[in-house]
TrEMBL record, chains A, B:
Top-level taxon of the source organism: Bacteria
Boundaries of every FAD-binding PCMH-type domain copy: 60-239
Family under the similarity heading: Belongs to the FAD-binding oxidoreductase/transferase type 4 family.
GO MF, any single term: oxidoreductase activity
Annotated protein name in UniProt: FAD-binding oxidoreductase
The organism of origin for this protein: Rhizobium daejeonense
Cofactor(s) this protein requires: FAD
GO biological process assignments: respiratory electron transport chain
Membrane spanning residue stretches: none
Amino acid sequence: MNSGTGSNPAVGDVRPATSDAKEAKLSALIGALSARLDQGALLMGDDVGDGYRGDATDDRGPRPALVLRPRDTADVSLILSTCNDLGQPLVIQGGRTGLSGGARPREGEVSLSLERMTRLENVDLRAGTLVVEAGVTMQSVQEAAEEAGFLFGVDIGARGSCTVGGNIATNAGGIRVLRYGMYRAQVLGLETVLPDGSVLSSLKGLPKDNSGYDLNQCFIGSEGTLGVVTKACLRLHPLPPLQVNALCSLPSLAAAQALLARLRQELGPLLSAFEVIFPEVYAGVATGGFATPPLPVGAGLYALVEIQGQDESENHERFAATLMSAVEAGLVDDVVVSQSPRDYRGLWALREACSAFIFSMDRMVGFDVSIPLARMQDFLTDAAVRLLAIDSSARPYVFGHLGDGNLHYMVRTDRYEDIADAVFDVVAETGGAISAEHGIGLDKKKWLPLVRSASEIAAMRRMKRAFDPNFILNPGRVFDMETEAAGKAPR
Amino acid sequence: MNSGTGSNPAVGDVRPATSDAKEAKLSALIGALSARLDQGALLMGDDVGDGYRGDATDDRGPRPALVLRPRDTADVSLILSTCNDLGQPLVIQGGRTGLSGGARPREGEVSLSLERMTRLENVDLRAGTLVVEAGVTMQSVQEAAEEAGFLFGVDIGARGSCTVGGNIATNAGGIRVLRYGMYRAQVLGLETVLPDGSVLSSLKGLPKDNSGYDLNQCFIGSEGTLGVVTKACLRLHPLPPLQVNALCSLPSLAAAQALLARLRQELGPLLSAFEVIFPEVYAGVATGGFATPPLPVGAGLYALVEIQGQDESENHERFAATLMSAVEAGLVDDVVVSQSPRDYRGLWALREACSAFIFSMDRMVGFDVSIPLARMQDFLTDAAVRLLAIDSSARPYVFGHLGDGNLHYMVRTDRYEDIADAVFDVVAETGGAISAEHGIGLDKKKWLPLVRSASEIAAMRRMKRAFDPNFILNPGRVFDMETEAAGKAPR
């Protein structure tokens, strides 16, 4: 078995290497690659900009001594097999918009950036699919789909700079998961390069294919630790002629949950988004001038809901009538339904202004958690108590995707570690997930054992060893392999 | 690395063991288990019925010397760890309705049947989820969902006897994949036991959870070769108040494809099934008395289409109007829209009668293939030519799930192997899949290299080694490990 650990004592970067040995390795790498890649493929020295030092979090890692920028899959294959032979660890970088430090370099890592792999094929109109390279932005995918009369099912705030490869590595979510599923559900095929340079190509775009293991599933959501995705065949949906949204003010979270159940039941697949904004965030957006909300501050909760339908008048009427009946039932205090594309965009701009408001404040730490709907109030109550016990000035700012049980739970504090310990403890107690859609990266792996058992983490390590036996791909992201490197039993 | 091959020379069943050694192993197994499991857990001798010798294919394997029937996850864990320690291979059996021989025992295998694990929890009404054990039938899941006001998204003909565990192992498909996705899309969580007895439990039911690898994805569709699923948390959908179907006669496959595109565009997510019946099958059903179809024989093709909607009158009218406009456009020759639940059931009975007609004929061999829509006519034309060249009496009988590109392609012939070589060659040439929804099992692995590259199969073997290093779970299904067992390099 080519597992590496027995046969190659210099595995990964876990054994301290001397500075000389590192430089020799880097020289060997540059020597091997510069002759076989084009001039733009290697950035070194001052050409390595600050952007390569991190992601959308505040922290910066060391400047990589080398940034490798392949043009195509063959380049990626060459780079990976060369690095694998040398035991050279890589940080894989896409749009670097992550929020868990996954793309932040660590000491000794060379960057592999997919930024030059930005080709899109034409939309296959009959199949409703689109094949793109990993460096294509989400917005380019959305626009190509729309031009061909289709909708791409995932949308997130970072759409303009996040890339397909990173979206797949983190199994991106966003605002329409309750209708279209996570990014995983958009992937009909992948092309992936393994550390040994072998290329797994599965781009047929077949909706049904049970011919052997669906290897693609391993790479979706594994944060670049098992292989490097170079291309994807993405599933598109017919473009819905109608998109309408509405902003509701509600008395409470319980009312919002009852509204969600009612809309699901009465609107079925028309319902495409159900977002919530808690009053502290809504007030901050309004008073800070980040947006001009159409309903006054002071409600117990705000919900932004959306339908996507086929029949303009029928579906619009049905949506309005369903919301009105929710007002009559006392679930909703007030509601504004968009009457024009301008209204529609305005309400979504209000939702995006939440992030702008949050990012405008210093000392803000964020948690991206999933909580079972039945336990969400318990989570909020218990977490608030725990926060105050640690920092009497700590107050939560909350918004997110209630339709999927996903809250962005932000806290303004100087005591990040203690607050994180407390919030994640309560997440675990209420049966939730410490990362709903942002992944684990470097920054959350400390807390992974709160929500994943020792057996599960052991199984993750088995997969890592199977696909990346020399630990060159995003090492140390999601979980550590230290126990093995220290010579202990693998389980 | 606990990969077994180095440390345990008696791996799997690939080295010929003496009869004595096999019997000693079996005695040791029975001794270890009988003291710790209840009396109903071990079947031996005459208590092992013929049913345990196979699946829904005609072939029968040897009668297993022992059938193990755990009551719960702890029993499964004990059974697997004991077999793993002894190197005792197992065939994993659910409802034994498979069509690829995956559940057919091989010489020396003991059966692990999940038939006594049939508990269902109550439906979680707020989350819309249901937790069940692996031995629960699909029909029980469907009925429990409906009683609680929900729909389960997958339906196949074997619903009365196929089980959740087998459905997950084969990533079942069926008639509503174009609306709800494959079985994979219904799985929100799994509990799985690995060969070493460790239990991976992930039954939180969270729609968004990116906290580490989604290990569940590895077990879905891997045909019981990586772990034994003991429980699943299944996603349910709001029960649609309206279900209407229609039977169309059409001039050609091209017309059916145009109709599919039109219905997708105009009906969006209302469209829940798009099945086709080719004229030879339709005529056989009608003249053989398997059903009484409402449209005359003789058309170029028949399509059975269905919508599931929220608003009875609106959606019904919309469906009828869309089909009428397709008649006016010349895509459809004639159409019957169901006007009552009885009509509705009658049309689905017609579709199910296709299987009854097919199974009534001797010498019938079946292929379950996916073909890209753009190449489907090429596939049909080329395959027909290839068939006739081999057997001048061979004629294809075709029906299936056009909405997903999945055809059940049946041929009446005595020359199975030659015909299979030819059909699968054409599948590969047209970019298709040799198994759309039935899996590979024992019976199709010979042809797997036609559609999956050597790198892909090598990656599957890496996963097998990582999860089942002693090759005790369904060995020889999907692919063989011989090269490794013979001491060759693992790649």
